[in-house]
Amino acid sequence: MIGTSIEWYDYYIFGTAAALVFGSLFYPDFSPVAGTIAAFGTFAVGFIARPLGAAIIGHFGDRIGRKSMLVLTLLLTGGSTFLIGVLPTYAAIGIAAPLLLLVLRLVQGFGVGGEWGGAILIATEHASPRRRAIYGSFAQFGVPIGVLASNLAFLAVSGMSDENFIAYGWRIPFLISLLLVIVGFLVRSRLADAPEFQKAKQGNTVSKVPAAELFRRRPRTLVLASLAAIAPPAVGYTVIVYMLTYGTTVVGFERSILLTLILVSTAVWMGTIVVSAVASDRFGSKKVYALGTLTAVLWPIPMFGLVNTGATGLALFAFIVAAIVQGIMAGAQGGLFTEIFDVSFRYSGISIAYQLGGMIGGAVTPIVATALFGAYGSSLPIACYVMGLSLVSLLAVLGLRQNGAAVRAEQANAPTTETEPAA
């Protein structure tokens, strides 16, 4: 949880900065709308690198172990984040500034690509099958905690004058990353690989080419899991990234107010993850995840309607319900994805599926939302777009039912992987 929170902090401060300042600092020759789209485009590049990071880091995670890859992802993500904090802007070095920002975002995305899968497996593979969701939820806390920490960091500097914020204030959250990486490294260096993976390694059942085995044995599961993973980032990035631009420039909220509203809703997000994880271990991860995707289909139109009123209380309610929607899916996702992939290629499977879904749901959504509003001048097309993505995830998770049952049957026939002696 600690390590994952640090990595998602690194990742999300980029999204916040892209919404608030990157357009004017790195793309000053563009119009305000084009500059925002360009900044979101740089933000999206990190998602393009995430599936590649998932495949490569997942390969070695299935071959060598989960722990070493988690240390690597932390160093890649944290190091690139710190360098963004000292990066000269377009005014200082011209076209080299956005190009270097692009490269650092690629490295950041590559590292995050292998993060989620390893963190989830370190947790879930230490658990019995009946407690996988609740164990996995601790890694899932990293996302809202990262959002919380990144928004707190920007909220702390948002009281500056616009001149000081643009001159140096935006850099402070990135520079803090160096201290967090040191803490994360100390934590992760003490981790032990999960007994389930160690058992596979000792039994010489580790796959030589995990990704190839994954595509050969579970292609349908991989496709459906990737589609099922679209809804959480589609809803999440609409709120925590696009809403910062939409709420300030269109509706007229102050930057500090929106950041505060997102902070409050994040606490609800974390609480919902716990409830969802407990329900998943009791009723099944697929049922709970499907419920979450259904709520993701239903909420976008009411959410934008409430924000469009310009009333702080109604906007807070909109974000809180969106946080509940995300929390339902997040609490079930770790257990669900662990169940549907075999241990020999599990790191690769859950990482690739999660990152492909994130690329579709997260990378494109702020760009499409900005373009749709520019074309139609209304939030309705944006809400319909998010609803459509969530509907795809709902149908995909329903299609995973048969594969999930087959995998659970295999696990029931396999030797126990409990960390404690069987009774």
UniProtKB/TrEMBL annotation:
InterPro entries hit by this protein: MFS, MFS_dom, MFS_trans_sf, Sugar_transporter_CS
Domain spans labelled Major facilitator superfamily (MFS) profile: 1-405
Keywords of this entry: Cell membrane, Membrane, Transmembrane, Transmembrane helix, Transport
Keyword Protease: no
Membrane topology designation: Multi-pass membrane protein
Location(s), subcellular: Cell membrane
Residues passing through the membrane, by range: 9-27, 33-57, 69-93, 99-122, 134-156, 168-187, 222-245, 257-279, 288-307, 313-332, 352-374, 380-400
GO molecular function, one term: transmembrane transporter activity
Top-level taxonomic group: Bacteria
GO CC terms in record: plasma membrane
Pfam families: MFS_1
Main location: membrane
Name of this protein: MFS family permease
